[in-house]
C-alpha cells in the first residue's frame, strides 16, 4: 500500500473528525433511526429513509478516515530545513506577470484549503514547485493557461 503524506496538524484534524463521527454523529443517527422506526410503516417513512441514508454516509466516512489514518506518513515539518521545495514547505511566490505575491504551504491532499494557503501536493502548482529552490522561475500549466512564478523564499515552520 502506498503511504499518504500528511502534516501532524492534518493527521490530528482527521483523528478529531473520526472521533466526532464515532462518538457524536453515529449515536445521533442510531437514535434518529430508532425514533423513526417507532412511527410505524417503514416503507413510507421519510425520516427513517433519511436517517438510514445519513447512517450510510457516516459509516462510509468512518471507513475512509480509518483507512487514510492507517496509511498516513506523518511528516514533522518543523524538523525539515533547506531552500529546496518539498512536502511541508511554505513557499512565497511572486507572479511574474502581475507582480502579485502569495504564500502556500504544500500539504497532503486531505489537508488542502487554498483559501487558507494550504496547497495540495497533487495540485499542478505544487507539482511544479517540488525540487525547485529560492530564486527559480516555475512555469505552471493549468486548465486556465500557463503562469510563471518566481520563488522568493522557502521555509519549514
UniProtKB/TrEMBL annotation:
SUPFAM superfamilies xref list: FKBP-like (SSF54534), GreA transcript cleavage protein, N-terminal domain (SSF46557)
Domain Transcription elongation factor GreA/GreB C-terminal: 83-155
Gene3D superfamilies xrefs: Transcription elongation factor, GreA/GreB, C-terminal domain, Transcription elongation factor, GreA/GreB, N-terminal domain
Gene Ontology molecular function: DNA binding; RNA polymerase binding; translation elongation factor activity
Keywords (A to Z) from UniProt: DNA-binding, Elongation factor, Protein biosynthesis, Transcription, Transcription regulation
Coiled-coil spans in chain: none
InterPro entries cross-referenced by the UniProt entry: GreA/GreB_C_sf, TF_GreA/GreB_CS, Tscrpt_elong_fac_GreA, Tscrpt_elong_fac_GreA/B, Tscrpt_elong_fac_GreA/B_C, Tscrpt_elong_fac_GreA/B_fam, Tscrpt_elong_fac_GreA/B_N, Tscrpt_elong_fac_GreA/B_N_sf
Short name of one Pfam family: GreA_GreB_N
Domain Transcription elongation factor GreA/GreB N-terminal: 4-74
Any one GO biological process: regulation of DNA-templated transcription elongation
Sequence similarity: Belongs to the GreA/GreB family.
Functional note: Necessary for efficient RNA polymerase transcription elongation past template-encoded arresting sites. The arresting sites in DNA have the property of trapping a certain fraction of elongating RNA polymerases that pass through, resulting in locked ternary complexes. Cleavage of the nascent transcript by cleavage factors such as GreA or GreB allows the resumption of elongation from the new 3'terminus. GreA releases sequences of 2 to 3 nucleotides.
Database matches in HAMAP family: GreA_GreB
Name of the protein: Transcription elongation factor GreA
Organism: Caedimonas varicaedens
Amino acid at each position: 500500500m502506498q503511504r499518504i503524506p500528511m502534516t501532524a496538524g492534518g493527521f490530528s484534524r482527521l483523528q478529531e473528525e473520526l472521533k466526532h463521527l464515532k462518538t457524536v454523529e453515529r449515536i445521533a443517527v442510531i437514535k434518529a433511526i430508532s425514533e423513526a422506526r417507532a412511527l410505524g410503516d417503514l416503507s413510507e417513512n421519510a425520516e427513517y429513509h433519511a436517517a438510514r441514508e445519513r447512517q450510510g454516509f457516516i459509516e462510509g466516512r468512518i471507513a475512509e478516515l480509518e483507512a487514510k489514518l492507517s496509511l498516513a506518513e506523518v511528516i514533522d515539518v518543523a524538523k525539515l530545513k533547506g531552500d529546496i521545495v518539498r512536502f511541508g514547505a511554505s513557499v512565497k511566490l511572486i507572479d511574474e506577470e502581475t507582480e502579485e505575491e502569495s504564500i502556500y504551504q504544500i500539504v497532503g491532499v486531505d489537508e488542502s484549503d487554498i483559501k487558507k494557503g494550504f496547497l495540495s501536493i497533487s495540485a499542478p502548482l505544487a507539482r511544479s514547485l517540488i525540487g525547485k529552490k529560492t530564486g527559480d522561475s516555475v512555469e505552471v500549466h493549468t486548465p486556465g493557461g500557463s503562469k510563471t512564478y518566481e520563488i522568493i523564499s522557502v521555509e519549514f515552520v
